[in-house]
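RETRY 2/3 - previous attempt timed out on the joint model. Re-submitting the same 417-residue input unchanged.
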Amino acid sequence: MKQHRETLEIRTGGPGLLDITDKVADVVRAAAIRDGLLTLFIRHTSASLLIQENADPDVLHDLEQFMRRTVSRDTKLYRHTTEGPDDMPAHIRSALTQASLSIPVQGARMALGTWQAIYVWEHRDRGQTREVVAHVIGD
Amino acid sequence: MKQHRETLEIRTGGPGLLDITDKVADVVRAAAIRDGLLTLFIRHTSASLLIQENADPDVLHDLEQFMRRTVSRDTKLYRHTTEGPDDMPAHIRSALTQASLSIPVQGARMALGTWQAIYVWEHRDRGQTREVVAHVIGD
Amino acid sequence: MKQHRETLEIRTGGPGLLDITDKVADVVRAAAIRDGLLTLFIRHTSASLLIQENADPDVLHDLEQFMRRTVSRDTKLYRHTTEGPDDMPAHIRSALTQASLSIPVQGARMALGTWQAIYVWEHRDRGQTREVVAHVIGD
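RETRY 2/3 succeeded.
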């Protein structure tokens, strides 16, 4: 049994979903672990991780729009407003999605379904550098 | 330290929550791992995994109804409509729940609470065959 | 490769987020595992786990208020009402957040970001004793 850990630096470009599947697949390859478990962890509370459809970019657009409709930016609703009108909504959107994901590894590849990709979801208005820790354990 | 991986095929019957706890418990037993970690991963983006109450079926009904109220099926709200009025809502509902779950294993059993069960939540209108990968690592 | 498992008993004080980061850090230290993976699992369906901001308590207040606005307590909306008007909303709020979290361990510490803390989110009106299972695997 062995393990491998790497921290990816992801540069986001403002609100929306950024596909990091290829970068994560590179980590799994570098780990040289045939069978095991991959864990991803994002070190932030205003961006999150999500597994979603990889085929139609409209899905990503509609997900972002759903969050905008559902999580109000009206600062009158919030006490935490000093970091801007997008900050508290970003925390809520992160709470509704995931900080960590676990994906089995088989044959040195992630066991993703045909239509699945891994995304960093940026919830702030401005692009940021986001750190995602990837950990693989197995044989 | 050893590991075990198995893919469950779950036939759903349309929108709602399907209890897969017994099937997963069988995998944990087959793994013959006394202490460790179970990870479940669903290979789809329009169905998800959830840990929820196992006692009153009304809870499952109310969860489904909450999602119907909260995630609109009005196609005017979405760009991604070619796969039917239920598809984009299914992606959103999946994003709001989980693609992966991690449960410690103790004494060759999952460390579930008394009232917890594991569900596949089908978000599409039609039943589907859904693949759930179960991975166990431990001693 | 070794592993360690411990069950934390967390006494909550009614609705809201309770910081358990220090308690979890103690478990990681006790595990004496330098590099590996920590998994947290809550054995309940009306309380959940969340990684969120540790700096401004207003963020925690605003998260709780968001859930109160979003998940109605109107019992006319629910069938499952016998356990009180807060119970079905508590199940929904749990479904929208997490029952399990995975955090890589590096240098015998959790790989949390600077602004991240780990919370138990109590969704019932009355404080409860909540069990959180912590599992660490690694070297």
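Chain C touches chain B through 32 residues (CB under 8 Å). Closing ticket.
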